[in-house]
């Protein structure tokens, strides 16, 4: 996202490069323009032209992406980001073509994707508290409610399409957690695709361990504890803390008290 922003800003004074990037990377609301450039449904969520726009989105992505990752794992962050952006873009297309006669209003920005992560965190952890500058501690459910209310209030300022995209991302984050709580991970196809690509790009190396003339030494109890701790921390990092079994949670709690 930052790369596209920088390229747009260091363009010549004619603005040709910036205009070219904006036209080809944004999501076009008009259905005929969208058919000519359908990739905009993906590239728009990785494109910014205003400094405050990218700063606000990247800060929120950092904060809520880390909370989401801590509880649900690394592998779900990018899939939900993409899904939130796609659903926000589809909502944008529908509103402009059904309510505004298909006027061509290009859109860029990661707000719908970030909103999906924010609302997913608030739905999963409604009473989780975060500290805000000048405000203090606030629970995620109240922060999410305030953000949505502010978005709805700003409808009067004319950014209807942008707000609709935000709401599309927010609804995606909410439904994602509801489905996940019922045992259905709607991001699983994307998770599978990314994991498959990683396996293809990093093929396994086959090697035969050399026989050592030395006698094998049995690991100590402390080494076994450290090994299991590392395995559980890797599991949390990949799949989130919810992936731990009750026995594994109890073991980690016992270790933290020693």
TrEMBL record:
Official protein name in the record: Rhomboid family intramembrane serine protease
Residue ranges occupied by any Peptidase S54 rhomboid domain in the UniProt entry: 37-179
Every DUF6576 domain range: 223-257
GO biological process: proteolysis
Assigned protein family: Belongs to the peptidase S54 family.
Stored InterPro entries: DUF6576, Peptidase_S54_rhomboid_dom, Rhomboid-like_sf, Rhomboid_protease_S54
Molecular function as annotated in GO: peptidase activity
TM ranges: 41-65, 77-99
Gene3D superfamilies: Rhomboid-like
Enzyme type, top EC level: hydrolase
One Pfam family hit: Rhomboid
The entry's keywords: Hydrolase, Membrane, Protease, Transmembrane, Transmembrane helix
The enzyme's E.C. designation: 3.4.21.105
Signal sequence annotation: none
Domain of life: Bacteria
Compartments it resides in: Membrane
Topological type in the membrane: Multi-pass membrane protein
């Amino acid at each position: 996202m930052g790369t596209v922003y920088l390229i747009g800003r260091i363009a010549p004074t004619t603005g040709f490069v910036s205009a070219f990037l904006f036209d080809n990377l944004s999501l076009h609301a008009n259905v005929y323009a969208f058919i000519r450039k359908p990739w905009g449904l993906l590239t728009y969520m990785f494109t910014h032209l205003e400094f405050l726009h990218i700063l606000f989105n990247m800060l929120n992505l950092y904060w809520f992406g880390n909370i989401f990752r801590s509880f649900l794992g690394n592998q779900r962050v990018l899939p939900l980001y993409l899904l939130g952006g796609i659903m926000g873009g589809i909502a944008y297309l529908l509103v402009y073509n059904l309510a505004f006669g298909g006027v061509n209003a290009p859109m860029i920005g990661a707000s719908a994707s970030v909103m999906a992560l924010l609302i997913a965190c608030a739905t999963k952890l409604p009473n989780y508290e975060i500290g805000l500058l000048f405000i203090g501690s606030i629970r995620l459910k109240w922060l999410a409610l305030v953000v949505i209310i502010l978005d709805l209030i700003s409808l009067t300022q004319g950014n209807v399409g942008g707000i609709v995209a935000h709401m599309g991302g927010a609804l995606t984050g909410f439904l994602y957690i509801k489905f996940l709580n019922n045992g259905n991970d709607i991001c699983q196809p994307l998770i599978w695709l990314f994991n498959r690509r990683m396996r293809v790009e990093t093929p396994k190396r086959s090697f035969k361990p050399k026989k050592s003339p030395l006698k094998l030494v049995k690991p100590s109890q402390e080494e076994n504890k450290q090994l299991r701790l590392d395995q559980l921390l890797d599991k949390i990092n990949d799949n989130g803390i919810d992936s731990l079994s009750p026995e594994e949670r109890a073991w980690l709690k016992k270790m933290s008290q020693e």
